[in-house]
Amino acid sequence: MNKEKIEFCMKRATFSKKILSVLQYYIQRINVRKNIMREGNISMTPDRIGQEGRFDSFANGEILLNKKKNHLPAMGWNSWNAFGSGNTEKLTVAMADKFIELGLKDLGYKYIVLDDGCYKNVRIDGKLSNEEVKFPNGFSYLSNYIHSLGLKFGMYNDIGTNLCAGAEVGTCGHEDEDAKSYIEWGVDFLKVDNCYYLWDNATFSNAENARYTFAPNIKSARIGEQEYNCADIGTADNIRITGERASLEGGHVTGLGTFDGTGPDASPVGPRSSELEIDFEAEADGEISVSVLYASAKKEGQGEWLQVAVGREMFFDDFLHETPSDNSFVWSSEIKVRVKKGKNTLRLMNHRRQENTLNSYARLLKELNKAKPDHNIIYSACEWGKTHPQNWAYKVCDSWRVLNDITFRVGADGDPGHGAWVEDYTTSVTTQYNKTVIMDEFAGLGKGWNDPDMMMIGMNGLNMTQNRTHMTMWCMMNSPLMLGLDLRRVNRGDDIYNIITNKDVISLNQDSLGIQAKRVFCSLAKQSPDKEYIRDIDRVDILCKPLSEKRFALSFINVGLSDKYEKYCISISDLKKFLGDKIFEGNSYNVKDVWAGESSENTTGIFEVCGLKACDNVTLIVTPEE
Known about the structure:
Elements: H1 3-12, H2 17-31, E1 75-78, H3 80-83, H4 89-102, E2 111-113, H5 138-148, E3 152-158, H6 175-184, E4 189-193, H7 210-213, E5 217-223, E6 226-229, E7 239-241, E8 247-249, E9 252-254, E10 276-282, E11 286-295, E12 305-310, E13 313-319, E14 330-331, E15 335-339, E16 342-349, H8 352-371, E17 378-381, E18 399-401, H9 429-436, E19 449-451, H10 464-476, E20 481-483, H11 495-500, H12 503-509, E21 518-522, E22 540-546, E23 552-558, E24 564-571, H13 572-579, E25 588-593, E26 598-602, E27 606-612, E28 617-625
Parallel strand pairs: 1-2, 1-20, 2-3, 3-4, 4-17, 17-18, 18-19
Antiparallel strand pairs: 5-6, 5-11, 7-10, 8-9, 10-16, 11-14, 11-15, 12-13, 12-16, 21-22, 22-23, 23-28, 24-27, 25-26, 25-28
Helix pairs in contact: 1-2, 6-8, 10-12
């Protein structure tokens, strides 16, 4: 979360004194400029990147570092929504015991994950260590206890220098030591955040780090003896801006970089980056010189780092010299590039926002592999969708957060915290759902899972209908099922218990095919319900999820806050238009309502629901019969 959003939440909500003090602490951390160099072992420039980690390789489907594949979405409990930084060994043991008491382990919930607030504020002899008041017996003790119950143990860190709550123990520069510690402690799950990140203007980092993530503004480029002016964009067919991030302003191109995806403003589908491309002719194979007329800065949209490629071959990837001002254009030094006879395309760009982040997450995985080559740690990237991890995270991670936190109003011991069905920023069920529901193309057993954050079921602010639909959404979207409530508030047979233990709903999330549901109908979609990013919640969605044994699930969801009285229907032929041979036809269909627990026969191949209460859903498992 950034300073503006925290202040917005402080104005809009009522908080306990404890939560207010936490938020005020965050503001203080943002306002105080920190020295991010620790012990002289962190370089002020990002690592060089091999071709396998570059933007041009994101879509090739190839994993890195032997990342394990074919994991179904993780199921478990994470401490943050329930306790924030106030989690303790005693509370964690109580949650693990409740897993057994409630029978959650038998339903697939198995990971008990410690979030922020468990380490000492500084490293001891370069290593992570337990906060001795909250975790007096150490992490090995807690890990052993959790494993003795047949459960799995998870922990938290950050690719930056500090954790989000401020502790100066981020894994950046300490990947080797931390990997060894996690293996020693028997860690089965790692959630890794993105605060205080050196090479992006991330949460709590210096805003001037935009110098790494954007190219300078560019007015012209000289290729050999020929000059190409950006003022010609739109009239000449040999010079253009790709994507949606950059724009032509006052005769120069600005914004050559990648959108910040932390908030809900931009669609996750489609190009999130921009490049300046120039087509030119070469008389022969060989080497020529390129230079650009540029102005650099250290602010969102205008940086100092330029990447220069011809086709897919990179020739320059570094800072240009700082210019006197952000509007002082100077010619760069000449950059030698290789060309082939005939048509070539020069690409001027900066994809470092995504490439650096991939590289940082990869470094920790590399060290984990070194420490224990056969480890099976589930690796969860929590970088809030900032760098559009749906494009690259499958290469090294098992899941990736798609947005900032689902709630900033976390609980404490005795305080359940607060969730919301709808809010302006990311802090609601529907904001997270609106983005994730159209991201099915990025998920799968061979890739990993879109993560709209821990569930808020059982927190204040959501009624039981909303809790039930929240559970449905996350299961249909193959999202990790991380409970975020204080489980001591749950008893067998109560409403919350019946939601989080519904076997039929859980089976959708854990189905062996591992296919995220596709939105096949949206009452507000103009043309493509599976691709259109729609934030207005006054609508009804229909999701379809192929399942094993030729079955499929349908979920009719009233996303809005008012009852709907219309009839909504979808046919087998409609479903096949979106999902093709993943949908099987039958002479008739057995239809089970997963929340009502009732079964019926359908002989028409048309499935309909007449009216939906506000925020409610009807979810069906359909089995074709011969």
